[in-house]
Write a structure and sequence with these properties.
This protein is α/β, with parallel strands linked by helices and 554 residues long. The chain contains 14 helices and 31 strands.
Length: 554
């Protein structure tokens, strides 16, 4: 409890009358923080804090990395900017040693300020000074953490750029013939055989680089720290990140294994309009960014660039690419789905050279001013068309069927109609792609008339549905004919369920192995469903672990 003596030691309360101080002492919170514990997080609602003892460090996420931007000692306050300007916290505040901090709600602060206007003047003056410093941080040109040199059409370059974007790492990219290469690249420019080449954090050079090497150079986690986890989540999309957030926040030692970068398919969605709590929609990468921060903050370990390639149903040991293993008391499969490939002439040859499966925002630059084509009639194709219409000269949606209404949401069809540079070719399919190093044109056939026309094209994005890639799982984890993992009642009926009790709703045919999100055999393929199932899976993990502990005794 805050005492009068605590308050009298605070310079900013020097002019406050004893009665008002007594009221404040009654209302204020007394936070006792262990090292590492937070008083406030970036984005939290406004409040005012004063340090009574110890030391508080201020950090801010810049380019996905938490950077220290200040500290507070006893007698100093923090939260003056949010409380004065009504904004959320612009940084996070944690103790670096055992600390005591006074917490004053916005309501109590304004009651105090009404009684003692000098307090308001003091706090507002401090806020104005502080905002100058924050402005400096916000307007300082962001220094890219990586400079990449490589050909625009090189699939490896595309993979690395997408990897950096998805991991929220700022980077610049230069073509090997860029006029400023000599001034920006340290030393002799990389040879053709050394591309793609990167220089990271101003020093380390990577030649012919791959995502794993890049991840390790940039300090991203690629190896588990422990040998055994309460739960290992495979896949870092919305379902996997939700499981990580709930698992870590509920005290489970949680590891996520992600083969690319966190975010999953949702990360490629330019605007998710129907996710609860975002009235104006939210881009997939923003949602992924927030979820990743949340999972990290709560203590989940997240490996990137690592594939799970094997799972032992008995011991629940997970094998990673390269042969490394990690043991798990429970496993959550959240591997989602991957885009279905087209077998048509030219698609494999021109992959990454103008042909893409799915779409990510990092491809926007490649479509600038071009006439591009999108194959598909679902919501993903519609969203991508809306996004690319802001960059490409024209966007043509190639649709096999005779209308969009069967497969696309009404709101999206209305939005497409409002964009003058989006065309829809119904009853159509792409018969062949043309181009040497890069896609140049495609043959577009009208399925109704049989007419085939050749049209110029700067890029083709394919959205023809997705499949679950689960062939690496052991046979004991029963799947349907399309590879989706059966859970709950369907797992019980598979004839492989080994126990007396019924499987939990999200439990597979192997006790303690769960599946959630798009990889699960279920008709619902939605962000909200994936997030809901990811969090629910943790509730079942708790029940499974409790039962596993109880079983030997019983
Ligand atoms: C363009 C687009 C737009 C969309 N728009 C919407 C929308 O507006 N609203 C909506 O509700 N839904 C939308 N969806 C659907 C939504 O994104 C998915 O339902 C959701 O992402 C499913 O989440 P998930 O975590 O189950 O799987 P995913 O998002 O597919 O994530 C699975 C993750 O697992 C990783 N992985 C796979 N195999 C392995 C392995 N062996 N080892 C390690 N990692 C592995 C993958 O790299 C991936 O990151 C959209 C999808 C797309 C593609």
């Amino acid at each position: 409890m805050i005492s009068m003596d605590d308050l009298k030691a605070m310079p900013f309360l020097a002019a406050v009358a004893p009665d008002d101080l007594a009221r404040l002492a009654q209302a204020a919170g007394d936070l006792r923080l262990a090292p590492g514990e937070h008083a406030a997080h970036e984005g939290d609602e406004r409040a005012l804090f004063a340090v009574l003892s110890g030391r508080i460090e201020v950090t801010k996420l810049i380019d996905g990395i938490s950077r220290t931007i200040g500290a507070r000692a006893p007698g100093q306050i923090f939260g003056e900017v949010p409380i004065t300007f009504g904004t959320p916290f612009q940084g996070s505040y944690h103790a670096t040693e055992p600390s005591r901090v006074m917490h004053v709600t916005a309501r109590d602060f304004h009651a105090l300020a009404a009684a003692a206007p000098a307090v308001l003047t003091h706090v507002a003056t401090l806020a104005s000074e502080r905002i100058g410093g924050l402005r400096g941080i916000a307007t300082a040109p962001a220094k890219a953490r990586a400079l990449m040199v490589g050909h625009r059409w090189d699939e490896k370059v595309r993979e690395l750029r997408s990897f950096l974007t998805r991991n929220q790492i700022s980077h610049d990219w230069l073509a090997p013939d860029a006029p400023d290469l000599a001034t920006r690249w340290p030393g002799p420019p990389p040879t053709e055989a050394e591309l793609p080449a990167l220089v990271c954090d101003g020093g380390t050079r990577l030649l012919n680089a791959g995502p794993r090497e890049l991840a390790e150079t940039l300090g991203l986690q690629t190896r588990p720290r422990d040998l055994l986890y309460d739960t290992v989540v495979i896949g870092g999309g919305p379902a996997g990140l939700a499981a990580a957030v709930y698992g870590a926040s509920e005290g489970l030692r949680t590891l996520v294994i992600e083969c690319e970068a966190p975010g999953g398919q949702a990360e490629t969605s330019s605007r998710i309009e129907n996710y609860l709590g975002f009235p104006t929609g939210v881009s997939g990468d923003e949602l992924a960014r927030r979820a990743l921060q949340q999972a990290h903050r709560l203590g989940a370990e997240i490996l990137v660039t690592r594939h799970a390639v094997g799972l032992d149903p008995q011991s629940k040991q997970v094998t990673l690419d390269g042969g490394e293993t990690v043991r798990a008391r429970s496993v959550i499969l959240a591997t989602g789905v991957s885009w279905r490939r087209l077998g048509t002439e030219g698609f494999e040859r021109l992959l990454g050279k103008g042909v893409y499966y799915g779409a990510s925002r990092s491809e926007a630059g490649a479509t600038q001013g071009q006439d591009i084509h999108l194959i598909g009639a679902g919501n993903s194709a519609g969203q991508a068309a809306m996004f690319f219409a802001n960059h490409a000269r024209t966007v043509t949606l190639v649709v096999r069927g005779d209308n969009l209404e069967k497969s696309m949401s009404h709101y999206l069809i209305e939005q497409l109609r409002g964009k003058p540079n989006i065309r829809v070719e119904l009853n159509s399919e792409v018969r062949a792609l043309h181009g040497d190093k890069l896609l140049a044109a495609l043959d577009l056939a009208n399925r109704a008339t049989g007419e085939v026309k050749r049209v110029d094209s700067g890029a083709v994005f394919v959205f023809i549905g997705a499949d679950a890639e689960t062939s690496w799982l052991p046979a004991a984890v029963v799947r349907d004919e399309r590879g989706y993992v059966r859970t709950g009642e369907a797992a019980a009926k598979s004839g492989q369920w080994p126990q007396q009790r019924d499987p939990y709703l999200l439990e597979t045919s192997v006790p303690g192995i769960f599946a959630c999100g798009d990889v699960r055999a279920s008709p619902v393929k939605r962000v909200a469903a994936a997030v809901g199932e990811g969090s629910m899976a943790i509730a079942f993990v708790h029940q499974f672990l409790a039962q596993a502990i109880a079983a030997p005794r019983g």
